[in-house]
C-alpha cells in the first residue's frame, strides 16, 4: 500500500502538486496549499457567500469547480464523510470542523504532544525540526500561540543528552534565546558534523591507497 507521501494529485493548469489529505498529514498545511490552488484558478471566492452581483449560473459553475478541486485533493477514505456536500464553502467548513477542532480536549492533546516531544534516535536534524514545526503549526491552526522563547526552549529540551554541551554553549551568557537562532545553529552543527565525517573518510581512503602504493614499491606482499 502506498504511503501518504507518495499519493499526490496534480491540479490541472497548475505548476505544483498538492498531497492528498488522508488524515495523517498536516491538515493546516494541506488547507493552505489547496487554498493556493483555488486562488490560482480564481475560485477562492467559492469559500465565501455568493456575491450579490454574481449571476446564479456563474456562481453555480464556480462553486462546482471549487468543490471538485477540493475533493480531488482528498484521499479516497476522506471523501465518504463529505459525499453529500454540494457546496464548496460547506465542504470546506465541514473538513475544518472535523480536523481543526478548537475543543479543550484537542488543545490538551496538542500541548501534551509539544511538551513531551523528544528527538527520535537515528533521524536527521532536518526531520526533527520538521516534526517539531508540525506540532507548532497544528497549535497555531487552533489559535494557540507559543511565544518565540518558549519554542526555542522546548526545542532545546527535546534534544538528547549528547547535545548538553551544545545547549550550554548556545545559551551561556545570554538573557534570551530566539527560536530562529536555535534552529539555524542546530542545522549548521549537523552540517559541520557531516563535513567533518566526509573529510575524515576521504583522508582515510587516501592513506589506505597511499599505503598500498608504498607496499607495492617496496616489494612487500599485502596479506588479507
Question: Could you explain the architecture of this structure?
Answer:
The structure is a single chain. The protein has 224 residues and is an all-alpha fold. Helix content is 60%, strand content 3%. The chain contains nine helices and two strands, in the order E-E-H-H-H-H-H-H-H-H-H. Strands 1-2 form a two-stranded antiparallel ribbon. Strand 1 (8-10) and strand 2 (17-19) form a beta hairpin. The two termini are 46 Å apart. Mean pLDDT is 82; it is low at 1-14 and 220-224.
State the share of residues found in helices, binned by percent.
55-70%
Lateral arrangement of strands in the main beta sheet: 1-2
Annotation, overall tally of beta strands: 2
Per DSSP, the total helix count is 9
Q: Give the CA-based shape.
A: elongated
Highlighted features:
single chain, 224 residues, two-stranded antiparallel ribbon, 2 strands, elongated
Which helices and strands occur, and which strands form pairs?
Elements: E1 8-10, E2 17-19, H1 27-40, H2 56-72, H3 76-79, H4 88-99, H5 104-115, H6 125-141, H7 148-157, H8 164-171, H9 179-218
Antiparallel strand pairs: 1-2
